[in-house]
Amino acid sequence: MTDVATATELAVCRSVTVVHGRGAATVTALDEVDFSITGAERVGLVGRSGSGKTTLLHVLGGLVAPTRGQVLLGGEPLSSLDAAARGQARARTVAYVFQGANLLPTFTAFENIAFAAHVSTLRDGREPAAGEQQALDPVELLELVGLGAKLEALPSELSGGEAQRVAIARALAQRPALMLCDEPTGQLDSDTGSRVLDLIDALHARLGFALVIATHDPEVAARADRIVTLEDGHIAGDEELET
Ligand SMILES: Nc1ncnc2c1ncn2[C@@H]1O[C@H](COP(=O)(O)OP(=O)(O)OP(=O)(O)O)[C@@H](O)[C@H]1O
Ligand SMILES: [Mg+2]
Q1: 20 alpha carbon, closest ligand
Q2: How remote is the C-alpha of 71 from its chain's centroid?
Q3: Are residues 11 and 37 in contact, defined by beta-carbon separation less than 8 angstroms?
Q4: What is the rounded distance in angstroms from the CA atom of residue 145 to the CA atom of residue 126?
Q5: Do 224 and 44 form a contact (C-beta atoms < 8 A)?
Q6: What is the CA radius of gyration of the chain?
Q7: Which of 26, 45, 48, 51 to mutate to test the pocket of ligand 1 (most atoms within 8 A of CB)?
């Protein structure tokens, strides 16, 4: 855990431009964006709808390749890696929590987490060596997010907040150094949203990952250490908050 907390420059975007579409119908979603995140920072990513927040998360997570510019994960430029090596670099570094929980509907809460941990191991292509970080145990994770009693529940048997907590547990199964959350409270009422944010904060304090949360919710932004504001694909503001 300490090596995660002290790691620097987990993810870097260097002059990243992302153009969607072709021909006359192109949209420049990110325009020469420079961004980096280090250590166990909590970054709130804000900006109007369409300003590029999700696109920046996708680029940081290696899900979308930049049209121009460079993304480095854990010091490795993704563009220099083939698809398999890119998958491994992602599996080692990044986890994603989407706006909806996106659980596999026919798998129980336990199976959703166990499956993610297994896929992460497969992607990595090898068993962790002795002393190296192992995937967290799904039962322990479900207890950590307060759902120890819901191991066998299917997603259809969970409330929205519970499903989102399973999604967070699933993201943490691979012990990411960097957690990317896209409007994690967007579909929750404000009380449930606050509890999910409390949980993310508690897990952040315990596991020491870096966090980027895209959000329209002022409460989410207020909990961050640093606020990055996007405007039409540009970074319009980047400020540290008083803690
Ligand atoms: N796959 C795509 N094809 C074409 N255009 C896209 C695609 N994805 C995003 N865009 C466009 O890129 C711009 C940035 O979109 P993005 O989803 O990053 O915004 P956002 O800040 O996350 O917005 P929101 O707050 O509504 O989630 C928008 O103009 C959007 O229409
Ligand atoms: Mg978005």
Answers
A1: 1
A2: 15
A3: yes
A4: 28
A5: yes
A6: 17
A7: 51
Ligand 1 atom 24: the closest Cα is on which residue?
49
Quick count: other Cβ atoms within 10 Å of Cβ 100?
14
Confidence of residue 39 (pLDDT cuts 50, 70, 90): confident
CA dist 123 and 90 (Å) reads 9
Nearest CA to ligand 1 atom 5: 20
Q: Which two three-digit tokens encode residue 69?
A: 């510019």
For the chain, which residues make up each domain, given as ranges? 39-60+90-240
Output the ligand 1 site: residues, CB below 6 A: 20-21, 27, 29, 47, 49-55
In the block, residue with structure tokens 């698809």: 83
Q: Could you give the C-alpha distances from 29 to 14, 50, 57, 183, in angstroms and in order?
A: 15, 8, 12, 18
CATH 3.40.50.300 holds for 39-60+90-240: yes
Nearest CA to ligand 1 atom 27: 49
Note whether 61 and 90 are within 8 A (CB): yes
Mean pLDDT of 151-164: 94
Q: How far apart are CA 232 and CA 159, in angstroms?
A: 35
Nearest CA to 59 out of 128, 117, 11 is that of 11
pLDDT of res. 137: 86
Residue among 27, 28, 46 whose CB has most ligand 1 atoms within 8 A, to mutate: 27
Mean pLDDT (whole number) for 78-102: 85
CA of 26 to the centre of ligand 1 (A): 12
Q: Which of 97, 28, 43, 30 is nearest to 70 (CA)?
A: 30
Residue type at position 162: E
Cα of 52 vs centre of ligand 2, distance in Å, is 7
